[in-house]
Model the fold of this input.
Amino acid sequence: MADLDTTNIAQFKPAFLLHFEVTEEPVFINSNESTTLIHAKIAKGYSKSLDEKYSFETEALFGWDNVRIRAGRDSNIQDLDAQVFLKSKKNGGIIHLEYTGVSVNNEKSEAILKGGSESNSFTDAYITNHPKFTLDSKNTDEQWVQGRNFLGKGRHLRTEDGNFGIEYVVYVLE
Done:
């Protein structure tokens, strides 16, 4: 395989930004010897296109993220499992966004979670997601998301209202 040139096989292109806010304290659903499950309600948010080729302008209607901390590994590692319902700003169609991901907290992200800091950069912590979309018949402007793979790189933040938030720059694999 020494002759395999991988430089131009695939490229990630920045497509859009996801911004979500949690306005209530997360609920601890379950904690036992193997897993801690935290349920966080997503109360508001939006997406905005980063490239006109990838139109994705929405507002978040509601959603949730189930965060799991598993025993037997570093407690700073969290598995993400989110469901968010979005409404297109262009055509009013409803979009079901679901993603899994991984968040590895560190001192900077813990400070934001505890309300002691406002934000960190996208490179300060390891926060990722892998979004998938289900569209309704009105979503003509967002059809380009079908049959594509996405990877998001995230950060934690606090809004001006003091709400906990998360943002992802979402890349499309070309």
